[in-house]
Design brief:
Blueprint (H helix, E strand, L loop, with lengths): L6 H16 L3 H10 L4 H18 L5 H19 L6 H23 L2 H12 L2 H12 L2 H10 L1 H9 L11 H18 L4 H15 L8 H28 L2
Length: about 250
């Protein structure tokens, strides 16, 4: 088979999204997870995956690509059905395996292993990439721990007074902070500082809207301090990255 451009890879990825998400009813997915190979929907899903791949590739000479990807899809889904845990980790591993198979099959049948290796190596040796990755990682759990330490005394004070009833979702505040710092850092890097103001206003509406009572005064101040620290840290790291990239 002659080498083709990246268009084939994009087509296969589109086919995967269509068959695994858009055209797979929730009933099919739940029944597959529960009954595995005994579920009729398991085979309907594999058949749908094959049909969509054939339509999207639209080239009979590519039938080996369809067979390899469909066969691997069958094996991966069969193994997944044997695992009772349907957590986010299992989902991510499942999708990662599908993507690895798709990439490998595409590289093999288009004879582009060398080109792919050279491209990946060229990217991996870029200092900017590693610095960007470092700052993104810095703004996740390390920053969450730092802000937690900086606001610990206020958190303890609220807890002692019994005003922190912990009615919110577990670790929701931590993940909100991580997501907002990642977004703010990205906005700073791409010079979209105006969006940060919109993000702060939106968070203020949703996060502080239910803290109007005077009894919640300390908790409101605590949340505001944590938010401002989070925003300031993300903006500072973003400005530092831009300074280092000059």
């Amino acid at each position: 088979m002659e080498a083709v451009n990246i268009e084939l890879l994009i087509r296969i990825l589109v086919a995967h999204l269509l068959s695994d998400f858009l055209f797979q009813p929730k009933l099919w997915a739940e029944n597959k997870d529960k009954y595995g190979l005994k579920s009729k929907y398991f085979y309907l899903h594999i058949g749908l995956t094959t049909a969509i791949l054939l339509v999207v590739t639209w080239d009979f000479s590519l039938y080996p690509v369809v067979l390899w990807i469909t066969g691997a899809h069958f094996i991966i889904d069969a193994i997944k059905s044997k695992i009772p845990n349907s957590s986010i980790r299992i989902f991510l591993v499942d999708q990662l395996l599908h993507l690895i198979v798709i990439l490998f099959v595409w590289l093999y049948f288009t004879h582009q292993f060398r080109v792919f290796y050279d491209a990946v190596f060229a990217i991996m040796v870029l200092p900017k990439l590693w610095l960007l990755l470092f700052f993104y990682l810095l703004l996740t759990m390390p920053s969450a721990v730092l802000i937690g330490k900086m606001t610990q005394k206020w958190s303890d004070e609220i807890e002692k007074e019994g005003k922190d009833k912990k009615t919110g979702l577990k670790d929701a505040g931590k993940w909100i902070g991580i997501i907002e710092r990642v977004l703010i850092f990205t906005f700073v890097v791409v010079n979209e500082l105006s969006v940060i103001g919109f993000l702060l206003a939106a968070k203020s509406i949703f996060r502080f809207g239910d803290l109007k009572e005077s009894s919640e005064h300390k908790k409101t101040e605590y949340i505001i301090i944590g938010t401002l620290l989070s925003f300031a840290l993300a903006i500072g790291v973003g400005l530092l990255y831009k300074l280092l990239m000059k």
